[in-house]
Amino acid sequence: MIEIAGVGKQFVLHNQGGAVLPVMTGASLSVGAGECVALVGASGAGKSTLMRMIWGNYRCEEGSINVAGTELCRAAPRVVLELRRSTLGYVSQFLRVIPRIPTRQIVAEPLLAQGIDEDAALAKAEGLLERLNLPQRLWSLSPTTFSGGEQQRVNIARGFIQDWPVMLLDEPTASLDAANRAVVLDLILEAKARGAAILGIFHDADARAAVCDREVDVTGFTPTKEAA
Ligand SMILES: Nc1ncnc2c1ncn2[C@@H]1O[C@H](COP(=O)(O)OP(=O)(O)OP(=O)(O)O)[C@@H](O)[C@H]1O
């Protein structure tokens, strides 16, 4: 479902005299249906950069990133947007808070965008918020003032409300207590059981051990000094 081959990335720092920073070369990995693969490697090794290239926030200029049959390297923006609408889910580390929109609406939004009936979408949102132990009195409020962990649970509920065939997870258990961490790990296992292909960054080794089938160390994709 995710096939990455020969991906390279360099940043050009236009505001710093055009300095060129090669950060990745020859990155290759694959994630099959029902599999969860963890990206590991030292801080700065390129885990987030690779995730952002798959999500399409960083442009991929070299190699191939194929997600469920769609080539994303050098793809037109509309191709990326269509994949995000239909196939690819992303649970980022932080919730993008939209003032004045109630929590249950934010969580239900991916289903509403698919044209799912509003009552059914809101009911599913509430079910997830309940599972993630977000107090009911908060469901009708905007998450602007929520704690870090509360915002993260809203973000996770939103990310898991749709049965995405492919999911990217960026630190989904960071800043959660043990009970909520266990709920998130269950959600990941359930997604795998229905056949989702999942690629994630998990700094928590126990979380990795609980849900991941394999690890890919991105340090292996760091350009050597000579090549740079
Ligand atoms: N937009 C950018 N412009 C310039 N350099 C960048 C940019 N994004 C990332 N980098 C550089 O790319 C390298 C890889 O960073 P990245 O954030 O992918 O690492 P990481 O493995 O996710 O690290 P961490 O575990 O600390 O989050 C770093 O040297 C970083 O400075």
UniProtKB/TrEMBL annotation:
Domain ABC transporter: 2-228
Annotated family: Belongs to the ABC transporter superfamily.
Pfam families for this protein: ABC_tran
SUPFAM superfamilies in the record: P-loop containing nucleoside triphosphate hydrolases (SSF52540)
Organism of origin: Roseinatronobacter bogoriensis subsp. barguzinensis
GO molecular function, one term: lyase activity
Keywords: ATP-binding, Lyase, Nucleotide-binding
Protein name, entry field: Phosphonate C-P lyase system protein PhnL
Family annotation (NCBIfam families): CP_lyasePhnL
